[in-house]
Amino acid sequence: MIRDLHEKLINQEITSEKLTEDYFSRIEKKDSEIKAFLSLNKELALDQARSVDQKIKNGEKIDILAGIPCAIKDNICAEGLPVTAGSKILENFVSPYDATVIDKLKKSGSVFLGKTNLDEFAMGSSTENSAYQVTRNPNDAGRVAGGSSGGSVVAVAADECAWALGSDTGGSIRQPASFCGVVGLKPTYGLVSRYGLIAMASSLDQIGPITKTVEDAAIILGRITGQDSRDATTADQNKKNYEAGLTGEIKNVRIGVPKEYFASVGLDPQVRKIIEAALKKYESLGAKIVEISLPSGEFALATYYIIMPSEVSSNLARFDGIRYGQSIEKEIAIEENITLTDIYFRSRAKYLGKEVKRRIMLGTYALSAGYYDQYYLKAQKVRSLIRREFEEAFQKVDVIAGPTSPTPAFKIGEKIDNPLEMYLSDIYTVTANIAGIPAISIPVGEIENGTKQLPVGLQLSGKWFGEETLLNTAYAWEKNN
Amino acid sequence: MLTKSEVQKIASLARIEITDEEAEKYSQELSDILGFVEKLNEADTENVEPIAHITGAKNAAREDKIVEYSDETKDAIIKNFPEKKDRFDKVRAVF
């Protein structure tokens, strides 16, 4: 899709300005129902678009992303634009700087339409935890978009942008991509800089693309990777041209299927059917399907629910009503005799949401004196076990396949009062974050539900920094369907 | 099961004011989640080293150099202070 738009731009069949205006009018028409965007930056976007048009007119060479309108998850900072992270505590906050990914995309000439909705601080699996609005699934407005990158995914699925950026800590790109029928990629930990991404769980967070096609994901990935002195966890990897590796040829690619993924009682039988059919298709394309076992996978979700909240409790300590964001300060008369700690306690109580507080408290407990060894240290050891199993599995196979989520999109409100139930929808996705490996969700089928079609995603995961094989395996599906 | 007073203690460590009813609710919810993560005890981690960095990266250092920001950026940072006096972030007394 991006390549087609690029061709049209350089052949001057369409201008970026017109393209951008078209997306804005689609947003105006649709977004009041599906609620993907939290803020729009029409002026800036049209300026960016016009400057690309000017370059084309001047006969200058432009990047493939230049002039292509995209959307940004609202936990990624862009200079001069609001960034709320879906939280009231950052209402009216304007970022003074660009995230590294934004800086890179600006250099490519990307057009930023606006910022998209998310679960507060990316904590959630449905985008119902946003402090502002509930994003709706374009396939069925009564169902959730998935989360936490629900806004970005819906914006892509409903053609409100050409592509979008999301962030993925436990499945936040892939699970909504599966629910809405688009492509979502979480890169290897350390491939993309997290500088300027509002931190949730720093050892798990990664930024990645949400797109209509696998080729688009490859194009974007190649433009956002790179070592960054501002994120010490970024890896020194050679720049790769991911789209050049998309041949669709997967003869003898070994696809591992963990038997545990299909033994789970929570797996919807219709999802299972679609995934099994997709694996058959891969076999017919020449791939070798190999049964493997990842027994420690059953600990992945429990490991996640120790490591993630622990890191959350530390990262979110900065939201204290002192240096930025909403503060109780303004609401209390200056004569009133309160101290600095009162500002902390009451600002956090008032402006942080329920799920955020729940995770901060859980993490605070897990890290508190006397419990560290029992919880955090234990979880980091289990994490070693899980990584070791993946290392062994990747001796035998090139890619691992399974469902992205055990069910299709669930109904709005269905799981909101039961945090544990909500957490289970990430059971297949968290493992990639725990192990640090790349994983992609691609749409491989739909479940008929009355008059509605509910998309189902296949998750493929690859070796550390093995995005080329991973993307090509995903591309093979796309090319042959 | 976490008691209400344990929950109050956690909230106080986390610098979040919670009401009595909230403490009650959190005691149930946090206990449920802690019950779920108990599963980790079944994992045999004898002689297993904890993960330090998932892709095995070692300490990353960069030059310790001061980068001066533009006045524009400084103003943008100051603009985000909840309360200010001139160009200072104004806060309440510590005690």
Structure report:
The complex is a heterodimer of chains A (481) and B (95). Chain A is an alpha/beta fold. Chain A has a domain at 2-245: Amidase signature (AS) enzymes (Alpha-Beta Complex), CATH 3.90.1300.10. Chain A has helices at residues 2-10, 16-34, 42-57, 100-108, 150-157, 174-180, 214-224, 259-263, 269-284, 300-315, 340-351, 354-367, 373-396, 419-423, 430-435, 467-479; strands spanning 37-40, 69-73, 111-116, 136-137, 140-144, 163-168, 183-186, 206-211, 254-258, 288-292, 399-403, 439-449, 452-462. In chain A, helix 2 runs antiparallel to helix 3, helix 10 (300-315) crosses helix 12 (354-367) and helix 10 crosses helix 13 (373-396). The longest helix of chain A has 24 residues, at 373-396. The model of chain A has no long low-confidence stretch (mean pLDDT 96). Chain B has 95 residues and is mainly alpha-helical. Chain B has a domain at 4-41: Histone, subunit A, CATH 1.10.20. Chain B is built from three helices and two strands. In chain B, helix 1 crosses helix 2 (20-37). Chain B is flat and about 55 Å long. The mean pLDDT of chain B is 92. At the A-B interface, helix 10, helix 11, helix 12, helix 13 and helix 14 of A face helix 1, helix 2 and helix 3 of B.
